[in-house]
Design brief:
The protein is α/β, with parallel strands linked by helices and about 130 residues long. It has a single domain (about 1-125), classed as 4-Layer Sandwich (Purple Acid Phosphatase, chain A, domain 2). The chain contains 3 helices and 7 strands. It has helices at about 25-40, 70-80, 100-105, and strands at about 1-5, 10-15, 45-50, 85-90, 110, 115-120, 120-125. The strands form 2 sheets. Strands 2-3-4-5 form a 4-stranded parallel β-sheet, with helices on one face. A 3-stranded mixed β-sheet has the order 1-6-7, with no helix packed on it.
């Protein structure tokens, strides 16, 4: 069980299935800009951020190399994490080849299966929806 205590003036945010990189470069760039604007908006009152999988349409991470692109998104997530806002990432069916880049470089806690969380004394089962149910 994971327990979070969020200050009264803070919120918990969730995002899922952005699939950046698909279906085309142009449409993905537009959605990336919207997502970055959303991240900028929420960071002022975020107590935690949950990314529920498939942030990218395809993520294949070698032991020493990460996928090309998405530098603005990765940089913004690092910035949010550096401000002390915890970020939790749940591996989705498009994230199967994820190693430790998010953990080591971005300080994001990564889960490969749904997890039980208690947030301000309320219980939640949180995970990526593909394959559950």
């Amino acid at each position: 069980m994971n327990t979070l205590v969020i200050q009264k003036n803070k919120k918990v945010y969730f995002s899922s299935d952005q699939h950046f990189g698909a279906p085309s470069y142009e449409s993905s760039k537009k959605r990336e800009e919207i997502f970055l604007n959303w991240l900028n908006f929420i960071e002022k009152d975020a107590g935690a951020l949950f990314l529920l999988g498939d942030l990218f349409d395809f993520w294949f991470e070698y032991s020493k190399v990460v996928p090309k692109g998405f530098v603005r998104i990765l940089g913004k997530l690092a910035n949010i994490s550096d401000k002390g806002i915890p970020i939790y990432f749940f591996v989705g069916n498009h994230d199967l080849w994820m190693n430790d880049y998010f953990t080591k470089e971005l300080n994001i806690k990564v889960f490969i299966s749904p997890q039980e969380f208690t947030i301000n004394k309320k219980s939640f089962l949180i995970g990526h929806g593909d394959g559950i149910g």
